[in-house]
Design a protein that fits this description.
It is built from eleven helices and twelve strands. With 336 residues, it is α/β, with parallel strands linked by helices. An eight-stranded mixed sheet has the order 1-12-11-10-2-5-6-9, sandwiched between helices. A two-stranded antiparallel ribbon has the order 3-4. It has a two-stranded antiparallel ribbon with strand order 7-8. α6 packs across α8. The chain is globular and about 60 Å long.
Length: 336
């Protein structure tokens, strides 16, 4: 098997060791020569404090997979930031209602509120109210505009969105090890699920989505939203009562279940995000060890300093997920 790039950082397991740890299907794909982005010097991550990182990895390995959970942002973390040189769409941005009037109204809301989201002068309490206002108005437009299940499917089908290389293998490995993956998103769970169905062509029993979920009538028309609104400033473990497994299809009222108590017993966390604010996804969780991985997709020179201070590991320039695959294989390996 030929791996593109061959120099691995010392703290990552070898590709041979990784193949022994991966599920059979993934090993088969590797033997078939599916291209894998290797870890040459260009792709090596930035490490904040290697000694501290190694201590956390050792502690997590000693506790075993039963104490580990993975928390991940969706857009530009699990998905690519760039696709063939063009900016990929977000799960929320890809949605087309089928009525230009309502699509334009949602765009107007974005143009007004998005700068406020990143304003350094607005107090957090006021900003939280603004985000609740933005999400509420957007959700009302989706209902008023008659969003349908068919429109969601068509939007995803025509969307410019793709998962990072290695995401499927990451999900497969964690599923085999019975490690839960909580995908946190301020977007729409139904769209995220449809993206996974159309782009990954499979489901994973260990994946739960914490996001805004829609309620449809028998004719497939949006009627309302379930539960409390999840926006960019409350996208954390306090919203766990909104967690739900992947549904078989849009509009399927699958089981929700109480994941809060079981997840909180897993006191070791691997957190994946593309914004420093994503570190708040573990707020409300009492963890013993937390390894944070940041994907710095753009404006590297401007942001590398703050990302290096915030995250334990930083991957640059819209990197693949293979580094995280190697990391979790190490975290789930036995301590000699």
């Amino acid at each position: 098997m030929r791996i593109v790039g061959h120099r691995l950082p010392a703290n990552l397991v070898s590709s041979t060791s990784l193949q022994r740890l991966l599920p059979a299907r993934t090993r088969h794909l590797c033997r078939l020569g599916i291209e894998r982005v290797g870890f040459d010097q260009k792709m090596a991550p930035e490490i904040r404090d290697r000694e501290v990182l190694e201590k956390m990895k050792t502690a997590i390995r000693k506790d075993g997979p039963s104490k580990l959970q993975v928390i991940a942002d969706f857009d530009a973390t699990l998905t690519k930031y760039w696709i063939n040189g063009c900016r990929g769409q977000s799960s929320h941005g890809l949605l087309q209602q089928g009525d230009p009037k309502y699509d334009n109204k949602r765009q107007e809301l974005y143009d007004y509120y998005h700068p406020l989201e990143f304003s350094p002068t607005i107090p957090i309490e006021e900003k939280t109210k603004l985000m609740e206002e933005w999400w509420g108005k957007t959700h009302s437009l989706l209902v008023e505009g008659g969003l349908t299940i068919d429109a969601i499917k068509k939007s995803v089908e025509n969307a410019f969105i793709a998962f990072r290389d290695g995401v499927v293998e990451l999900f497969e490995f964690l599923e085999e090890k019975d490690v839960p993956i909580l995908i946190f998103s301020a977007g729409l769970a139904d769209i995220i699920e449809e993206v996974m169905r159309q782009k990954l062509h499979k489901s994973f029993k260990n994946v739960k989505i914490v996001s805004n979920r829609m309620v449809f009538d028998d004719n497939g028309h949006l009627q309302a939203f379930k539960g409390k609104t999840i926006h960019v400033l409350n996208k954390n473990e306090h919203a766990l009562d909104m967690a739900a497994p992947l549904h078989d299809h849009i509009g399927c009222d699958g089981p929700n279940g109480d994941y809060s108590s079981s997840v909180k017993k897993r006191t070791n966390v691997l957190l994946l995000g593309d914004h420093i604010g994503d570190l708040g996804m573990s707020d409300g969780l009492s963890y013993e060890n937390r390894i944070t991985v940041g994907f710095l997709n753009d404006n590297v020179e401007k942001s590398i300093g703050s990302y290096r201070e915030a995250f334990d590991i930083v991957y640059l320039n819209d990197a693949s997920m293979w580094g995280v695959v190697d990391l979790v294989s190490e975290l789930c390996s036995h301590v000699d």
